[in-house]
Every structure is written in structure tokens, then in C-alpha cells.
Amino acid sequence: NAGVTQTPKFQVLKTGQSMTLQCAQDMNHNSMYWYRQDPGMGLRLIYYSASEGTTDKGEVPNGYNVSRLNKREFSLRLESAAPSQTSVYFCASSGGRDLLSLGQFFGPGTRLTVL
Amino acid sequence: DAKTTQPNSMESNEEEPVHLPCNHSTISGTDYIHWYRQLPSQGPEYVIHGLTSNVNNRMASLAIAEDRKSSTLILHRATLRDAAVYYCILFLIVFGNEKLTFGTGTRLTIIP
């Protein structure tokens, strides 16, 4: 199993450009999440999806949109990138009978720089 | 949401036990205590969790105070690979809706 995969690993954008960060999990998890991590900070939740077809805002949703394409995939879109969105973005998933004991599984992250 | 307080940084010698403290004085009766760690340039990974009783797994032990207002993550024999940021997190699990609120964590340095 690959676990949680994210693409791309690195991205540089100019202010105003748009892009979509892709995330996929192969663990048959119901819940998926997008976080951002700024330098020296903990992770902050952007959006989450408790199940296929549902999405909800987290702590810092402004400037982002998400799509839960199917049970496996959860994408994050920046419509008009701003320098304040320079960060490392992590996707995570959780679910199944061992939800409590296994916690959330995180991908390797996407390092985004907006110039 | 209930808050946690952790020291910003700690150091420990290799092959010695490490005790990482966490205060959570506003914890509610149904909040679980979870610990995650983040190795350099990686996403966080689950370490251990507990509710009221002390817990052990292959990675660590979790000691929870009787009043649940504090807990301690114990690494029994630190290795260089344990150098990471450790996060203590509280959350209430409702099926399909568990949101982790990360603080800034404790940066653990292991001295060879």
C-alpha cells in the first residue's frame, strides 16, 4: 500500500496563478483532510471531508476550494495564489474500524512558494 | 476547543529515557489525548493515544494523570531517529468528524 500520496512535491507560483494539489489514499478511509504548515508552526486545518460527497471548512479555509472526487481522492485548489499561501501542504486520511488506534495518516507534503 | 501546553524544546542523550510533558487543564471528560510526531521534512505520524488509563505500544508509553489535566509521553530508550517535533493533541471523536488541532509542539533533540 502506498498510503497517502500527494502531487506535486514542489511548486512555485506567481501571484494570481491557480493550481490544484492532488491527494489520494489507498486505505479505504472515509475521512480526508488538508492542512497547511507555516515555518516553525504547527499544522492548521484548511478543509476536511468526512465522507465522499461532503466537505467542511476547517480553521483557515479562505482562498481555497476542495473537491472530494471519490472515496480515494481529495483535491485542494488555489484559485488566485497569494504570497501568504506560501506553505507546506499536507493531506491526511483516517477511518475504518481502527480509527481510534491508528489516528490520521499523513502524506509527504507539497512545498508551495508563491512569488 | 481544549488547549494543550508543551515546552518548546527538550534535549536528551541517546539511549536514555525521555519524558515529554503536556498540560491540558481544560480537558473535558470525553477528550482523547493523542500524540503525533513529525520527523524533519515529513508529515506527522501517529504515536499513541489514551483516555484515562496509561497506555503502551511499540513506539512509546503514555502516562495520564489521575485528574487528566496532564500527560507524559515516554520514549523508553531514545535513538537519533526519535529526533522530531512531538505534538500533544486533544480531540473528541465523533464518527467521521475528528479534527486535530496542532499546537507548536516540543522539538526533541537527541544528543549522541
Q: What does the main sheet of chain B amount to? A: 5 strands, mixed
Strand order of the largest sheet of chain B: 1-9-8-3-4
Q: Which spans of chain A of ≥5 residues are poorly predicted at pLDDT below 50?
A: none
How large a portion of the residues of chain B is in β-strands, by DSSP E?
35-45%
Quantity of strands of chain A, as a count? 11
The total strand number of chain B stands at 9
CA(first)-CA(last) distance of chain B: 38 Å
The radius of gyration over CA of chain B amounts to: 13 Å
Order of helices and strands of chain B: EEEEEEEEE
Write the H/E string of chain A, N to C: EEEEEEEEEHEE
Helical residue percent band of chain B: under 10%
Distance between the termini of chain A: 36 Å
> Could you estimate the helical fraction of the residues of chain A in percent?
under 10%
- Major interchain interface with per-chain residue totals: A-B, 31 and 23 residues
Per DSSP, the total helix count of chain B is 0
- What is the quaternary state of this protein? heterodimer
